[in-house]
Amino acid sequence: MNTIGKYLLGVAALILMTNCGNNNSNSNSGAMSSSKAEKVYVAPGEHDEYYAFFSGGYSGNITVAGLPSGRMLKEIPVFSQFPTSGYGYSEETKPMLNTSFGFVPWGDAHHPDISQTNGELDGRWIFINENNTPRIARISLETFETEEIIELPNSAGNHASSFVTENTEYIVAGTRFAVPNPQRDMPISEMKGQFKGPLSFVSIADNGRMNLEFQLNMPGFNYDLAHPGRNKSHGWFFFTSYNTEEANTLMEVNASQNDKDYIAAVNWKKVVEYVKNGGGKKVAGTYAHNVYDEKTHTATSTMKEGVISINPVEVEGAVFYIPIPKSPHGCDVDPSGEYIIGSGKLSTDLSVYSFEKVLKAIENKDFVADAYGIPVLSYENTIAGVVKQPGLGPLHTEFDGKGNAYTTFFISSEVVKWKLGTWEILDRQPTFYSVGHLMIPGGNSRKPFGKYMVAMNKITKDRYLPTGPELEHSAQLYDISGDKMELLSDFPTHGEPHYAAGIRADLIKEKSKKYYELSENEHPYAAKSESEATVTRNGKEVHISMTMIRSHFSPDNIEGVKVGDKVYLHMTNLEQDFDVPHGFSIIGANTSEILVMPGQTKTIIWEPKREGVWPFYCTDFCSALHQEMQGYIRVSAANSNTPIKYTLDDE
Amino acid sequence: MKTLIKSLLLIVLSVCFIACNNNAKTAENSNDTTTNEASNEKTGQAFIEDEGGTPNALQLAIASKDHSTLVAAVQAAEVENALVNVGPLTVFAPNNAGFAKIDEATLNDLLKPENKSKLAFILTHHVAPANYPIETLKKNAVKNRKLYMASGKYLEVTEKDGDIYVDGVKIIGTVNVSNGWVHVTEDVILPKD
Description:
Chain B: Keywords: Signal. The structure holds two protein chains of two kinds. Chain A is mainly beta.
C-alpha cells in the first residue's frame, strides 16, 4: 500500500469516527456532554455516585450495586440462608429465620425502601418485605446486616410492603391473597365476604425497633401495592387492590371481570388516634419477632401472641375506596403528595387522582356506593387526569422531582416519561425486555435525586452471553438529567429484582462500619484474647471458645472430644482492622462455614461421627500465611478416657 | 489509487457507516417528540432470532400465507413487540380474506403513516392480555364473561351452532403459540365506536 493510500484511509476513518462521536453527543441533551461509556465509567479505585439496593426476589436477599457502573458490591442475606457468611447457619443467626411455622430457610423478598426523615431519604435503614411467610426485615445501613425481622400474623402474601412513611413512623404490610381471618377450616367456595385482607401497620422506634401496632381488617380483596402519602398527603396511605370479584379460582379470568377495582385510601393518623383511645380489639395471632444484637452478635427470636384488629367501618372518616380501572398494580405518590397514580395493569390508560379532590369528595360525602360498608368515592370527582394511551400494561411510576413521572409498561416493554399536571407524554424508551419496576434514587420520596433511572426487566432472552435456560434478569440504566431519557448501559441483576431503592452514596458511606470493637463484644462465649480461649465439657456438650488472628487459631490442637459429642465452635476474630475477616470450617460439619468479621463472635455446631484427627482451617484468604492457618481436633471413641486438652504451640 | 486500497477504503467506509447508522438511530430515537415514532428502531423481543422452540403469536402470523395482510398491518402500526411478550396473549387473527372484506380505500388509508395510531388501536382490539383457549371462550359464552382487550374495550363471546363468535366475528381455527393462543377469524373485529 502506498503512503497516500494509507493516509486517505486514515482520514476517511477518522472523519467517520468523528461523525459518529458527534451524532452521539448530539443525541445527548443531558447535563454532561460526554459519551455513554464515559457516563458509566468509574475509574479503578473511584467510587460510584449512588448505592442501589436491589431486591433479590426469590433469592430472599438484597444485592447492593453501585450506580452508574452497575457493579455489584455485596449481597446482604435477609430471608434466606446464606452459606457465604453463615447467615441462617450460625447459631447466632438461626433465630433470624424463625417464624410461627418454625425455621424457614428461604423467603421471597420484594420491595426495599430506605428510611426517611421529613420525606427525604436519611440512610439509616433499609426495609424489605417477604411475600410468602409475611414478614418485614430491617437492615442497618451502617453494618449492612439484617438486624430485625417481624412476622405478620393473619395475613398471606405480603406484597403491598415495605413502604415507609415520611418520618419512618410506620411501615405497612398488605394481604395479597385474601384468607380467612382468623384462619379456619372452611369450604374455599364460600370465600366471598368470609375471607379478609388485613393491612398491618408496624411502627418504627427511634432505635429502629419494629412493633406490630394494629391490623385493619379489610374486605377480602387482594391488596397489591401501596405508597404513603407525603408532603400534603402525609398521614394517609394508599393501597391498590384487585380481585374485587372475590374470585377463588382461575383468577386470570375471574379476577378481571369488573371494570374497576379499588384503591384503598387510609387516614392512618386517624386510625392511630382511634387505637390510642382504646379502639379495636385484641384478636389471636402468633408471630415471631427476631432481633439481632450488635453487642452480643446474637439474634433472639420471641414468639408473640395477639394483635389489635380494627374493623375499618368503625373508624369514622378513616378508610375509603377509590375506583380504579382494571386490576391495578402500582400505586405511586408524587413528591408533592398531590397526585396518586394508579396503574391498571390491563388498562390502556393511567389514572391519576388528586389528593385535594379526594379530601373534598370525602368532605362532601360524595360517595357512589359502599363495599362492605366502606364508602366508595366517585371516580369522576377524584380523578385529576388521565394519561391517554401511553402504552400497554402500565405497572409502576417514579418521579424525578422536576415535575415529571416515569411509568413502566410491561407488555409494550418501555418506560414512558410524562408530565404531571398536563398528562402529556414527553418521551418513551424501549426496555429489554418486559420491564417490571423502575427505580430513580429517591424516586418515591419528597426529594428525588433525578439523575439516573434503572429499569428492572423480567425477561432477558438474548441480552447477554447465554447461560442455559435460566438467565439472570436484565436491568438498564438511563440518564434522565436531560429532556429525553438516554439509555446508558445494561447489566444483569441477581434473583428477581422486583424493586430497588437508591440513595446518594455520601449519605451512607462515611458512617459505614469498618469493624466491631472487640472491647464491646458481649457474646457469652467470646474469647477476647488468646489467654481467654477455653474448651469446657458439660456432659455431651463441648464448648470451644477459639480465637482467630493472622495467621493462627488459638487453640489449634484440641483433644478430649468424643464421638457423639455436640461441639460448639465459638470463633472470635481478634483483628481490629478493616476488611480482615477470618472464615472457619471443619471436615464433617453438617452446616456452612462461618465468616467472622473483626471483633465478632460466631458459632457453628459440629457433631463428630468418626474417631480420628480432623483438621479445621480458615476459609477466607486472610494473609500471606493463610494456608498455615489451620488446626486439629482429636476425636476419641465415645467411651474413651482422653482428657480435654487444648494448646497452641504446645503451651 | 490501487484497487486494493479502494476496496479497503470501501470496507472502512461501510463499517463506519454501519456504526454511525446505529448511533444515528439512537440519536433520532432520543430526539423524538411524538409518542409513536420512538419505536422506529427495530429492537425488542420481536427481533430476537430464535430458531427452535414453539413459535410465538407473531412468528406464527409471519409464517402463515393466509395472514400476510395482518402482518403488514402489524408492521405498519409497529406493534410487533406487543405480540411477542411473555403474555399470556390471546390474538384474534383475521385472515387475508377477512381484510379483503374491508374496502380497499379504507384499508389503504389505515396503512398510511399518519393513521398509525388508529391502526394500532384496531389491532390492539384483537389482542387480549389473557389466556383464552377455545374451551375457555366456550365457557365465557355460557357464563356471559366478556373479554377485555388491549384496546381497553370489551368483546362479547357467543356460541352458535357449535361455533364461537367474538363480537359477531366467527372463529375458524385455533393455534396454541408459545405466548398464548391465536384464533383465526374470518373478519376484522372493528371497534364499535
